[in-house]
Amino acid sequence: MTQTQRPLELILARNLMSALSTPAFLVDEGGLLVFYNEAAGMLLGKRFEELGTVGPHEWGAMFGPFDEAGEPIPYDELPLVVAVRNGRPAHANFEIRSTDGARHTVEASAFPILTAHGTRGAIAVFWPTAGEGTGGAAMNGADPGSPNGAV
Amino acid sequence: MKVKLWGTRGSIPSPGPETIRYGGNTSCVGVTLSDGSLLALDAGTGIRNLGLALPGEPTRLHILLTHLHLDHIQGLVFFAPAFRAQTEIVIWGPASPEASLRDRIARYISAPLSPVEVRELPCDVSFRHTPETEWEIGPARIRAASVAHRGPTLGYRIDDGDTSLAYIPDHEPALGADIEALDEDWISGFALARDASLLIHDGQYADAEYPDHIGWGHSSLTHALSFARRTGAERTVLFHHDPLHSDERLDRLGAEARERWATVGGRPGAIELGAEGGEYEPRPGPGPRSPAKAL
Hints:
The complex is a heterodimer of chains A (151) and B (295). Chain A has 151 residues and is of the alpha+beta class. Chain A has one domain (22-140): 2-Layer Sandwich (Beta-Lactamase), CATH 3.30.450.20. Chain A is built from five helices and five strands; from the N terminus they run αββααααβββ. Chain A has a five-stranded antiparallel beta sheet, with helices on both faces.
């Protein structure tokens, strides 16, 4: 058997996310963005079916996220990446940029998908915050032990 | 490889005059590999008759459990070879963070549900969690993978020479998903069933029954046919019949399945409903085999 198969946990996560109105993102165990739902697509201005699976650098160039100074937040510090690498929840505020150039301030919470065979990936939900587009990247509930708190 | 259906019913044994042809015993499939090695897929009440059919001489066999719902293990304490000291039985099943496979099965094979305990079984029995990677039994390569059902549940693929059997008796791949539209790698169980010589798959519900059973872990007829079409299985046997479905009802479901399969260009004879006692000798097909049109 040579056909690769997504882990069942990712399949079920995608199925659930597809039914949610909350913007949600899914990465695999390697940190590759493998799915986001329609609500996330509306936020970004691009449906997942139009974009497809993308790596972190391509994703960052298109959408960010950015800190309060407008600088890209390092990949290693993103909640999804922290969740999948460290196997624990992570949370942050930051800005993302949609395809029409608009900036949206969001809160993002990510949690790992842990199984008996280890971490399969991670899910993040985004909550657009009041005053979006005004900048600001305050970290809420950040882990004090993490690099610059951006987790 | 030779395959025999010893129990095709789902949920609960359903004996009676209305289920004589398709059978009332719960899930069990016997597989004889090309070197004579014997596998039992699940241990529902059908395994009792499988055990009675085996010779009384010393036997080594493997039981591959998809999950531990009662309709898949109920026959274990009535499996005659388990009560012979000469028999070696290896039971494979899904791991759980909560307890070992042996301890979870022992909840059934113990008082007050059973007159015997696991430790009292005369046979040489061992319990193994299925590995993440392929392993070998005799000449066959075996692979297990988690599939969409309630609780930790596996499907199996058995490759023996150039033939293959996929066994996914309890499966709801369409839960929250459109399996006609999804990419292959996002369909639960796809890699197990892809281009299988023989696919034995959940077909518990008629389409009209499914809306009242969403999330119960089983497939409607449409979902089962779509899964068969997408995976390109050479031959598909619908299995795990609902206990409320009489022979006549299953005849109608089977006719509907064949008609719809033909409508989308499927090969005649490639879809059928499993009946207790049914025997198969999977052979590699000429491929490509699945109908091109969606259901």
